[in-house]
Amino acid sequence: MRLLIEKIHSDAEARLVLPPGTHPAKEVARYKKFLMIETHRLRMRHRAGGPGREICRARAEVLDLLLGHILNGLEAVSTTPSPNYALVAIGGYGRGELNPYSDVDIMFLHGGDSISRTKPPAFTELLTGGLLWDIGLRVGASVRNIDDCVKVANGDMQSKTSLIEARLIRGDEKLFNDMQKAVVAKCVKGHEDEYIAARIEDQSARRTKYGNSPLMQEPNVKNGCGGLRDYQNLLWMAFFKYRSRTLEDLEAQQLIGAHERRQLDAAYGFLLWVRNELHYYVDRPLDVLSKSVQPAIAHNLGYTDRSPSRRLEAFMGDYYRHARQVYLITRTLEQRLALLPQPKRIPSLRQFLRRRRERASHVFDGFKFVDGQVFAASNRIFKDQPRRLMRAFRYAQQRGLVLHPDLAQLIRQQLDLVDSEFRRDAHVHQTFLEILAQRGNVAPSLRAMHELGLLGRYLPSFGKLTCMVQHEFFHQYTADEHTLVCLEKLDKLAGAQEAGLAPYAEIFQKLERPYVLYLALLFHDAGKANSGGNHAENGGRIAIAVAKRLGLDAATTHTLHLIIRRHLEMALISQRRDLDDPAVIRAFAALIETQEHLNMLTLHTLADSMATSDKLWNGFKDTLLWSLHHKTRQTLAGETEFIRANERQREALAGEVRSLMPATFKEDELQGHLAMMPTRYFELRGARDILADLGLVHRFMHHQLAEEADPLAPVISWHHERDRGYSQAKICSWDRHGLFSKIAGAFTAAGLNILSAEIFTREDSIVIDAFYVVDAATGLLVDRDARERFEKLLHQTLTADLDLGWLIRKLKPLQPIYTPNAGERLPTVIRFENEPSRNRTIIDVETEDRVGLLYALSQELSEMSLDISLAKICTEKGAAMDSFYISGPDDGKVDDPVRQGEIDSRLRAAIQKLG
What we know:
Blueprint: H1 2-16, H2 28-47, H3 52-77, E1 85-90, H4 91-95, E2 104-110, H5 122-128, H6 131-135, E3 139-144, H7 146-153, H8 157-164, E4 167-171, H9 173-188, H10 192-209, H11 228-242, H12 247-252, H13 258-282, H14 294-300, H15 308-339, H16 349-359, E5 367-370, E6 373-376, H17 381-384, H18 388-399, E7 402-403, H19 405-413, H20 420-424, H21 426-436, H22 443-451, H23 454-458, H24 460-463, H25 479-493, H26 502-510, H27 514-523, H28 535-550, H29 554-565, H30 569-576, H31 582-592, H32 595-612, H33 619-637, H34 639-660, H35 667-675, H36 679-684, H37 687-705, E8 715-721, E9 726-734, H38 739-749, E10 752-761, E11 766-775, H39 784-799, H40 804-810, E12 829-833, E13 841-848, H41 853-863, E14 867-872, E15 875-876, E16 879-887, H42 897-913
Parallel strand pairs: 2-3, 6-7
Antiparallel strand pairs: 1-2, 1-4, 5-6, 8-9, 9-11, 10-11, 12-13, 13-16, 14-16, 15-16
């Protein structure tokens, strides 16, 4: 660092000293060259492994020298004597921490009440002459006296924070010191509690905005949980509380341990290093470490494994570990700084604990419970009896308390007590299972255990998930954080009263062994830590080993193994299979065996889905999940009951539709419509939906009778689902070969994106298809122009010869939502299944979404004389996961491997053509 600064100073002396009488405004090229050379020097030093702090401080030094020399030049040619003033760096520049494109904020502090406008001092020319702009600097500047500083600082928290970080660049040192004293006396002293409360509130809002976790898939390096701002926030509050400015000051006051201080220092330096690279890589200020830039950032920072995946895992693993340390340690210290009363004399940790003990009434099992917190009565509490490590969390759970930060630190320091003997201890197993048995109150305990490192030490199979990168594009958390969020989602079901969650809450309350479900969620992704293989299968094997160590009986072990091994099945079947097919329901019921397993798997699926991403679960998927649960429950109770229930449901719906039906509709229309629709129609359609469909068919049949009408023309109705963010288009027409492909192509050519589709064909060959669509360019509801464009295209393609493929190829490609990592793509996967359906083959296609994908796939199937009787369309975050129920020319399954290979090849070729 010293040599780097010496080189910068030497270069400044050689390049920035002006010849006598030269005005700085004439030397723009000189200043630009100096800035360019030093910027390049810092970039090269960074690329050579320069620490984050070093580069940031060196950049601040470059600007100090540049601004100082410009001021010298202005003063040398000025005819107006300058008043006493100080050039002051504030904000991040004041801290001496400037990332490559960080904001540069300066203040000219003067001693007078005002500055003459007729004879302005030299430094004002620096602000008004455009010189800094011409050089290429974007500087935020202000001119104030001491009274102005006090007024501004007391105006808002951010300005106050900026001024307490002020640093003198050049000028009147006494004036600067007087300003600092005034700010402390009038803006800090007496305002401590107010400032800290505002900081904590701001901290909470910021963390909530950026995901409330340091383990986000695309973290914000500056403002996210565990980011740079968390560290800085700690120091700001520490200054107000204890007038300490550094971590070393906090360590000297025994408010932080040496180990914690070293961890925070290392983590902060790492984050600055990453942010430097982010700025250099994109040549602009950037704080979000998005998936698209992560591989390049990793490579540039020296993570050079040949595999992009391993390179990414190594880099992001390090990032998550450092961000997690910042988050956990600063959060612990916030409790001390913000919640404890200001002491007249700062106590040591030992004195603090003694005072707390004096206020406690009694000791229980080595613990004291005071003011909503659990304390240790002695620092030997765990060494005397290691089992207490687990009991501490049980006591906190039972009493609704939290561990005091010092007890938490004591646990963290004594994790070596969690050895093989501890892991085999039956008493510890029992305590842990008691924690898991507290329906609705498990997640806080397990999160606390994980944050202190106990959970991973006690259960190494879970510990391997810590900060583990998940390559699945739809996951927003690391593997361990996803698991903890799953547990939180399950907890919330215990007392849920919302209409959408109440049925699940009822199931949850009936579980006889809730701890098994919590244990299943805890380990459902443990198999991801094993290289290769199906993670659900791997997880099932891990579950058996864990169950054996915890002493679970054979029946419980079987249940745990089954739930983990099958934890993906229910979401897949509900969203991508024909729930009207009894064979599908019977096969699923055979997999899960019992009603208890069904209840557990339903709750597991809901919690897992909601915790994967807060944007991917919706009412449509909920309806499908609940429908699968309902039908499977009836199947498990007996096939005849299932059939009778369907009949009762159809009769009830008919009665409700009849009560809503206008007089212009006849009873035989209703009866005929209901008799000709498949069973799954009544699972997905309510009474009002059925009435709307009946009205659509009514219009279509009248259209057939009109002399001037084309019988091949469709009838279309639109409905906006504003709460769900999409438009529904219902299309009624005659069934014909390739109909689905033509409809899909018309949507694409009209600039609309299909989110999902429901295909229903009556026995009289009248089709009622529902498509859920959005504007492809904006993602918003479909406007009138787009509706009219689609209707025109569909009419033309169904009644005349229209080349939809040519129209689609003309479309301007849109930026895809899914952005692959460098060297990686989302692979295309095509699977054939014949078992789930009696007379149809299911083709599952998973690939990156592309303009015209659904049209290309359905057209290819049509050209191979394959009939699509059902399609499950799912597009999430730029990935298409579509399932087609097809039959061959003989109306049977496609089970010939050679024929399947031909279909596979042609579908892949169709996808490849799309680019």
